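User: What would this chain look like folded?
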Amino acid sequence: MKQNTLRVVITGASSGIGAATAVAFARQGAHLVLGARGREGLEDIAARCREAGGQAEIGIVDVTDADAVATFAAAARAALGGIDLWFSDVGIGVVGKYLDVPMADHRQVVETNLVSHMNEAHAVLPVFVHQGHGIWVNMISLGGYITSPYAAAYSASKFGLRGFSAALRGEMHDHPDIHICDVYPTFVDTPAIFHAGNYTGARLTYPPGALAPETVANAVVKLARQPRATTVIGMPETMLKLGQFAAPLTNLLMKRFMDRWSRRAEPARDTVGTMYTPAPAASGIHGGQRRHGGQRNTALAVGAAVVGVALAARLLSRRG
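Assistant: Here's the prediction, encoded as structure tokens.
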């Protein structure tokens, strides 16, 4: 960094990982501009940041609107006097069989999880180039490596986002002080599970062992001092990458799991969650499910377990 006080912009900052990261940076004395669609959530997290020792301003922005993002970025640059790190953390999901989910919802997931990140990069990279330095942190997730039946649009968006980051990294090669950093957590206990669209007919819960949002936040804060291209949280990076080789078996196991799960889990009505409108009130940082270790019927549960089973099966088949 070129100075002691970090100047940080976070989108998706009104809840979950973005909110936890804002507070973590505030504890370091950072000056922050927080962006999201919902004013109540942003004001709640900005107040927490000030209590933690940082300075925080908010900006209401829908990051799927490129012009709105450009305006937000310009305002953030003016307020901070420059931008040292931009954390692009906006993301949504919809769970359900591909044909059961309306195309409008699939499109909204891709617009939010991929195009919005492209909008943000397009707005802030010129600032970095002008300054001669900057760190772009891209929230991707396990879904950038492991495909998820019942979440086809989410998989498409996250795989696309990983490719987008790789392309940006190549283009920024001649700017050694501009870093493109990707973050890949496994399951994280945030309010996102309550914000997701759901067409499974069953209530969504997190699997046992979901990470605390603060764990991811601390990893992002570390990138401000030690930027790196890939940060995997919740499992070894090598296992995440090896999981790609087991994709056919992983997909089959996930599909069978989801079919059984949706028949047995607690019923729930279809919902679009917060895909189109922000939460009506502050959502906070946590999802409140990390201590409920017995909840194994979950639309998100198979993740790491399926990867492990698939890898083991592949290795055993090679030994046979």
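Residues 292-320 have pLDDT under 50 and may be disordered. If you want, I can go into more detail on any region.
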